[in-house]
Structures are given as structure tokens and as C-alpha cells.
Specification:
Blueprint lengths: L1 H5 L1 H4 L14 H7 L10 E11 L7 E9 L4 H4 L5 E8 L5 H18 L1 E4 L5 E4 L1 E7 L3 H7 L2 E2 L2
Length: 151
């Protein structure tokens, strides 16, 4: 059942003239046209970066690096079960790219080389992981490393 949930993005059909999901946008379509997202088992993630202060008068800043698995339908992808934080950076961040480059580079590697998952029943699933970057992330990272960037 869980694998069927992950196939939402692959099986979904866009309605011409309507943008109702990430998969209707021009950035996604251009990235897909470059032979990305070719298998129903490929994973599409969105990387969000957001910084904030912990209290109104505080100078303590935090930056969250947050991931959504976009393969899941919109009705469940935003629930706690299907999204996660991969980094929390404390303090004033002067060079956010230095924190993000290793993360983006690892995902890029999973998009090029792929990921092999062996299930308990012996079934082997081969997929690739692709990223759409958004939020406070530098557009330069997206362009340099070849990920789609959504403003």
C-alpha cells in the first residue's frame, strides 16, 4: 500500500491551464524533460530552508532544513508522518551554502547513481532521488548542482 502512495506523482495527470501541484509547474516540467523522474519508483523531494528567531527580543537564530516527499498526494504529504527535518543550524548563519552543499550534493548523487532498496520479502526496488529546492535556499545552488528551483 505504501508503494502505491509513492506512485502518486508518477501516475498523476495535469490539467492544461491549471496549476494545482508542484508537478504542474514549469520548473518541474523542464527538469523532467531532461530524463529525470522516469520511473514510478523515483522519489521527488522538496528542500525548504527557513530561518527565524526563537523569541521576539532574542538574538538566537535557528535555521531549519526541511524535506517533503512530493511523491505522496497533497492530502498526506504535509502530515508529520511524511515530512522531516534533516538539519537545524543554530546561530547567525553567514554562509548558508556551506551547510547546504553537502546535503544537495548527496541528493544529486542519489539522482545520478540511484538508490537500491531491498525489502524484507526480497523484492528489490531501484529508484533515483531528485530534488526541488525552495525557500531561503540560494538559487545558485540549484543552478550549479542541477536541481529544480522554485521561488
Amino acid at each position: 500500500m505504501e508503494l502505491k502512495k509513492l506512485h502518486y506523482a508518477y501516475n498523476r495527470e495535469s490539467l492544461p491551464g491549471y496549476i494545482t501541484d508542484y508537478f504542474d509547474g514549469e520548473s518541474y516540467k523542464a527538469f523532467k524533460a531532461k530524463n529525470n523522474f522516469t520511473s514510478p519508483d523515483d522519489v521527488v523531494i522538496a528542500l525548504y530552508v527557513d530561518g527565524f528567531v526563537t523569541q521576539k527580543k532574542s538574538k538566537q537564530e535557528l535555521v531549519f532544513v526541511h524535506v517533503l516527499v512530493l511523491n505522496y498526494g497533497p492530502s498526506i504529504r504535509y502530515t508529520d508522518q511524511y515530512m522531516f527535518q534533516i538539519a537545524v543550524i543554530a546561530g547567525k548563519v553567514k554562509d548558508l551554502d556551506s551547510y547546504l552543499l553537502p546535503i544537495v550534493d548527496e541528493v544529486k548523487s542519489l539522482g545520478e547513481r540511484g538508490l537500491i532498496v531491498k525489502k524484507h520479502n526480497g523484492e528489490i526496488i531501484k529508484s533515483k532521488v531528485h530534488m526541488i529546492a525552495s525557500g531561503d535556499i540560494s538559487q545558485g545552488i540549484g543552478l550549479i548542482l542541477g536541481v529544480a528551483y522554485v521561488q
